[in-house]
Design brief:
By secondary structure, this protein is an all-alpha fold. It contains ten helices and two strands, in the order ααααβααααααβ. Helix 6 crosses helix 8, helix 8 runs antiparallel to helix 10 and helix 9 runs antiparallel to helix 10.
Length: 264
């Protein structure tokens, strides 16, 4: 099986397909023309940039080169997770970064060290792509969890205040919102797991098959990655929801709704 290398002309032909989106936006008056152009340019620039960066990192595979890049990836994921949702609060950025960092690096360490047995652990061929896939899903879970938690608390504020007024603890008042938030954060990964291999072929598996790897070997890797993603998404969501709960409820069991700030 030969690997088909793509030329810049091939990439340009694929890029031209974005015109389909532009035409639909014009015909349906969606007003997405500017966003489409920006998104397309960012896609090309960002991927080309990371391609050159990874080429240099792979050629200099030392821990003091790989580790800062992994930290930067994690920091960007945490910041991205905090920038979504209609409501925010003081400390959300720190909560998002902590949740993404703790869950992704814990599950990533288990995957690299105990399952795939990567030696050394910072081997960029494995460490960077696997951490990247875990981060992408963890930040989605964290952002959805925080957004759903704040929305549920606002929507059920009367019930929350009533439980607290009747002598309930802050956790008793917040637990239903927390359940809904964790469920919302985990749902994208669960939906992905239910159709993987039937409706969609995941990127890692597809990449290995295109590179000439045995389909069964690629499947084993993809199964491992899916379970790593599911675990990190769940842990990150729970951590983010719990930290949000601690921020919005005082120690004397009051719902401090004033701490919520609507994004402009």
């Amino acid at each position: 099986m030969n690997y088909q290398n793509l030329s810049m002309l091939d990439v340009a032909i694929a890029a031209a397909l974005i015109l389909v989106n532009g035409v639909l936006s014009l015909l349906m008056h969606l007003g997405l023309g500017r966003q489409l152009v920006i998104a397309a340019v960012r896609t090309v620039v960002q991927l080309l940039a990371i391609g050159y960066v990874l080429g240099w990192v792979f050629a200099h595979a030392w821990w003091y080169v790989v580790l800062p890049l992994m930290c930067l990836m994690t920091l960007i994921a945490g910041v991205s997770a905090s920038g979504r949702g209609k409501q925010t609060y003081k400390g959300q950025l720190a909560n998002s970064i902590l949740s993404v960092w703790a869950s992704s690096w814990l599950i990533g360490a288990i995957g690299l060290g105990l399952i795939i047995h990567v030696k050394p652990w910072y081997e960029p061929q494995y460490a960077i792509p696997i951490l990247g896939m875990i981060l992408g899903n963890a930040l989605t879970g964290v952002s959805l969890g925080i957004d759903r938690m704040t929305q549920e608390l606002l929507a059920t504020r009367v019930n929350v205040d009533m439980i607290l007024a009747l002598g309930g603890t802050r956790w008793e008042a917040a637990q239903e919102a927390a359940r809904q938030a964790v469920r919302a954060g985990m749902m994208p990964t669960l939906n992905q797991m239910t159709v993987v291999g039937i409706v969609s072929l995941p990127g890692m598996m597809t990449g290995q098959v295109l590179a000439g790897e045995s389909p069964l070997a690629a499947v084993r890797y993809q199964i491992v990655i899916m379970f790593l993603i599911a675990a990190s998404s769940a842990l990150g969501t729970v951590c983010a929801v719990f930290l949000t709960y601690r921020r919005l409820f005082s120690r004397d069991h009051r719902f401090v709704v004033q701490r919520l700030i609507r994004r402009t």
